[in-house]
Amino acid sequence: MSFFISEAYANTAPAAGPSMWGQLIMLGGFALIFYFLLLRPQMKRQKEHKSLVEGLQKGDEIVFAGGLIGRINKLEDDFAVVELAQGVDIKIQKSSVLATLPKGTLKNI
Prior knowledge:
This protein is α+β, with helices and mostly antiparallel strands. It has 2 domains: about 20-55; about 55-109, SH3 type barrels, CATH 2.30.30. Helices cover about 35% and strands about 30% of the residues. A 5-stranded antiparallel beta sheet has the order 4-3-2-1-5. The longest helix has about 35 residues, at about 20-55.
């Protein structure tokens, strides 16, 4: 035994930390938060957009990506021919349609 150096004793108490069950409950909580705040709303939006695209008909007035509006003249498999103005027709993908407008909206603009 040294006069200047104190003796070190081993700590026999177990390390205090979260238990395995506590960690699993926390992980499950994060998974639920992730599902309800991120995944579920995104899946709902995808489902609504899919039903919108499947419900398109000739004569519908639409807004599509880029903010352009027009009337559908012809529907094909994955494409639609849209009239932007008198005699100006373009072909777009159906998936680029953002919303349908009430009938007569194009006449009021």
